[in-house]
Automatic annotation (TrEMBL):
InterPro entries referenced in this protein's UniProt entry, alphabetically: AraC-bd, Homeodomain-like_sf, HTH-like, HTH_AraC, RmlC-like_jellyroll
PROSITE patterns reported for this sequence: HTH_ARAC_FAMILY_2
Listed name of the protein: AraC family transcriptional regulator
SUPFAM superfamilies cross-referenced by the UniProt entry: Homeodomain-like, Regulatory protein AraC
Keywords tagged on the record: DNA-binding, Transcription, Transcription regulation
Gene Ontology MF terms in the entry: DNA-binding transcription factor activity; sequence-specific DNA binding
Record-linked Pfam families: AraC_binding, HTH_18
Residue intervals of the HTH araC/xylS-type domain: 195-293
Superkingdom field: Bacteria
Positions of the UniProt region annotated as Disordered: 292-311
Length: 330
């Protein structure tokens, strides 16, 4: 079995030049380009850490797990650990950049833990209210990061990062497909159960796609697990499971030369025909057609809406789970 983690895709460790030894770096995209060649950014690679980019000037094309995003001023991009990323920034692209390790933030509550998930959206185009709010927080983080004293600075930065992430959570709040708001998650039992389910799913999606198996592993009923998934993701447990399997299928088809039958078996399908039907249902093309379409910054741009009065984008184009926007811009 080919483990995605062992694929020959470069993994970038967390080793910031600025303020070494800290679990967070507050810098700019322009500064990053001083140390990282553009050729490397354009090639497939993975990060061992989180990276948040708020574009303030110019344009650029980014690909996360083979889905392309066209970024421009007001674009917010969250690259999570182990996602396959490529970037072709134009020479005028500028932006604020936050990099942090998984261990740096304060203990992730269910609300923040829900954000640290490859099945969640990774790209938003922000309106003026969101930009102003994030700008204020980023200014405080930049000021604190530049202080020479580090004793209390680390704790202050941890809490400012938590505030920043909570603001991102507010931006990507979700509703059911019919437009009704989801039950508040916060630190509720549904949020905690969903986080536990996602952890279990990461370890078991290759061997089972049965809802009953996950409920048994979590010592809960299938009904309780269904309610947690609907409360948090606005979709069924089965859809979350299938989204994770489809994401891995896309990764293996893009970054390995495994025969389609071997990909199917690795993901727990005993028949290639069943895998093909599954893949067509999730990705809207056959595995072979998807593989032939892959290349540098492949695929059509994600369907991102923007402009006055339009919905904030919260659908995850990579996985097929649709996170509808909770509110419309004023």
């Amino acid at each position: 079995m080919v483990d995605f983690d062992s694929l020959p895709i470069p993994v970038v460790p967390y080793s910031p030049v600025c303020r070494p030894g800290s679990g967070i770096a507050v810098t700019s995209f322009q500064e990053l380009l001083r140390w990282v060649p553009r050729e490397f950014l354009a090639s497939p690679h993975r990060l061992e850490f989180h990276q948040l980019l708020l574009v303030t000037q110019g344009t650029g094309t980014f690909s996360l797990d083979s889905t392309r995003f066209e970024c421009r001023p007001g674009s917010l991009l969250w690259i999570r650990p182990n996602q396959v990323v490529q970037a072709i920034p134009q020479h005028d692209l500028a932006g604020e950049l936050i990099m942090f390790t998984e261990a740096f933030p304060p203990r992730m509550t269910a609300r923040l833990g829900l954000l640290d998930d490859v099945l969640r959206p990774s790209h938003w185009r922000l309106g003026e209210p969101e930009l102003a709010e994030l700008g204020r927080i980023l200014s405080l983080m930049q000021e604190e990061f530049r202080r020479p004293e580090r004793a209390l600075g680390e704790e202050v930065l941890k809490h400012l990062l938590a505030v920043l992430l909570l603001n991102v959570y507010q931006i990507c709040r979700t509703t059911h497909e019919d437009g009704t708001p989801l039950a508040p998650v916060g630190d509720s039992a549904w949020g905690e159960l969903f986080v536990r389910f996602r952890k279990e799913l990461e370890g078991s999606y290759r061997t089972t796609r049965q809802v009953e198996d996950y409920a048994a592993a979590l010592n809960c009923t299938t009904r309780a697990l269904s309610r947690a998934c609907h409360a948090v993701a606005g979709t069924s447990t089965k859809n979350v499971i299938d989204a994770r399997v489809a994401l891995e299928a896309r990764r293996l088809l893009t970054h390995t030369d495994l025969p389609i039958g071997a990909v199917a078996r690795q993901l727990g399908f005993t028949e290639v025909t069943n895998f093909t039907k599954f893949f067509i249902r999730r990705v809207k093309m056959t595995p072979g057609a998807f593989r032939r379409s892959t290349g540098t910054l492949i695929g059509p741009p994600a369907n991102i809406t923007d402009g006055p009065g339009e919905s904030l984008p919260t659908s995850c184009e990579v996985t097929g789970i649709q996170f509808a926007a909770e509110s419309r811009r004023p």
